[in-house]
Amino acid sequence: MVASEVVEALQTLPCGRRLLAVAQDHPGMWLVGGAVRDLLLGRTPRELDIAVEGDVQDVARALGGEVRLHERFGTATVVDGACRFDLARTRIERYPAPGALPEVTWAGVEDDLRRRDVTVNAIAVSLPDGRMIHVDRALEDLDARMLDVLHAASLQDDPTRVWRIARYAARLGFTVAPEVRLQAANLGRGEVSGERIGNELRLALAEPDPCSVFEQLEALCPWVLPEGFAARPAPLAAALEVLPADGRRDLTVLAACTGPMDLDAARRWLEELGFAASDRDVVLAASRWVTGAPLRAATSASEIARAAAGAPIEAVALAGGEQARRWIEELRDVRLDITGADLVAAGVAPGPQLGERLQRVLDAKLDGRVMGREDELALALGEADA
């Protein structure tokens, strides 16, 4: 595919047509990075990355939708329905220390391409006319399906690039260049914050196959993942098969991978990476349920429900087995037709016994021993045998 075909492919996308229309009145707009790479590969890009040799704010507002502007960094994100545009003013970046955030100077698009993470992302197509520019080896590496960095200090400047290279390798099936593997093997963390690593981990968890990303990381730079972290844990595939739509796939993957880790070490790691307390709680609870012994030992529906009650749905999925499937697909939404108020109205004194009676009736309903409101009320009031 040549540059003109990139523009033609862009015209087939609703978001692409909007972008091209705006570019008619805003010179200096370039489609860059993964969007160009994916279009050249015949793939639909996840989002459209735009380098702007001019006023980012003006372009963002012209695109419409919800605009999140970061004037200090010369960047903006525009979201409107299914369309997402990531805009950045063209720049040069200098890293004052390994892993530190870069110092930014505005520059032209040719200089901007030289700051990219890998050569296959250092390609730009001008909009709307479709002129292509790229760094040396970019198209050759794309043809060879090779991931290579632009200079010998690339990973040292920004160690988080190893995460991105692992994601590209896993998603695209590309080979990592030997020189990159050598850089990664000698990589230190530098001054990279836990928050930035946490952001990279979240992006990895959002990939179609996060475990492939983790396997790539283990091969490239083993210290990036903590001790005990399992790149592809055995219980995960079965758990994802039964995980319902309201379950968190990302947290299920993370829980399975951290299952073999020491609990305190896993907690500290998640805190360092900036995960919200609610997400940490789910991951840590679910990670201890990887074996799921209480649930696996259950035989009746009521035993399954008692074992699973109160556990995150991600934990139940990781417990695995037929019991987990039954809880998720059949049992977790079973509710009584009576309430504690019904028992009080029938003369039962308020107190713990209300909950005990209701639990007894729920067990019976789960096991098929009561049918309907009258049966439930009779059993709760002791007028029927369970």
From TrEMBL:
Cofactor annotation: Mg(2+)
GO biological process, one term: tRNA processing
Residues covered by the Poly A polymerase head domain: 29-147
Coiled coil regions in record: none
Molecular functions (GO terms): metal ion binding; nucleotide binding; nucleotidyltransferase activity; tRNA binding
Classification via CDD domains: NT_ClassII-CCAase
KW Transmembrane (keyword) present: no
Keyword presence, Thylakoid: no
Alphabetized UniProt keyword annotations: Magnesium, Metal-binding, Nucleotide-binding, Nucleotidyltransferase, RNA-binding, Transferase, tRNA processing, tRNA-binding
Protein known as: Unannotated protein
Organism: freshwater metagenome
